[in-house]
Amino acid sequence: xxxxxxxxxxxxxxxxxxxxxxxxxxxxxxxxxxxxxxxxxxxxxxxxxxxxxxxxxxxxxxxxxxxx
Length: 68
Fold this sequence. Notes:
The protein has 2 helices and 4 strands; from the N terminus they run E-H-E-E-H-E. By secondary structure, the protein is of the alpha+beta class. The protein has a two-stranded antiparallel ribbon with strand order 1-4. The protein has a two-stranded antiparallel ribbon with strand order 2-3. The longest helix is centred in the first third of the chain and has 5 residues, at 16-20.
């Protein structure tokens, strides 16, 4: 099963990964702030992720790693 890992220390909460996800499985965690003061991205339904890596390709800070 593929999975994504978000480096929350690098994520600046831009939301580009959420826009790029074809299944709309990524959202910003508005209930938390990372050390830089941003809402980090999170995978909401990991079991539905297909590992397409569109999120990682779109991330300007390379904060997302996709493992298949």
